[in-house]
């Protein structure tokens, strides 16, 4: 038997607010640092290495930057779902979807982001799928960074 019971106690409400703040504040700080990293990627010059090494390093930085932004945003979306969206309706099914299903979906997407950006942890079937060209490796954001960095 599957039972889901919401918690409307003062303790759980105050803990929920604390957890929300403990996630949102570092996310805002992290995304602020991401903006400074983006500026460095676009306008920064790397000296002392060859052009091909510079391109490889820049490509790796861009991948890591995009992964960080995606993962930060996913966790904030999860917290917004758990804290605010579920409270829009009182039906139990609605709250279940925005608490439990959202949690599972966000963490599944988080794992997908990890698989996509880190080739060393990708299973062989994903590597073959990406190598066959069925899914483009280069996103428009990476192309925008490259075109902006060559100016």
TrEMBL record:
Keyword Transmembrane: yes
Keywords linked to the UniProt accession: Membrane, Transmembrane, Transmembrane helix
InterPro entries referenced in this protein's UniProt entry, alphabetically: 7TM_GPCR_serpentine_rcpt_Srx (IPR019430)
Membrane spanning residue stretches: 17-43, 92-117
N-terminal signal peptide: none
Protein's name in the database: 7TM GPCR serpentine receptor class x (Srx) domain-containing protein
Pfam families found in the cross-reference section: 7TM_GPCR_Srx (PF10328)
Domain of life where this protein originates: Eukaryota
UniProt entry tagged with the keyword Membrane: yes
Span of domain 7TM GPCR serpentine receptor class x (Srx): 2-118
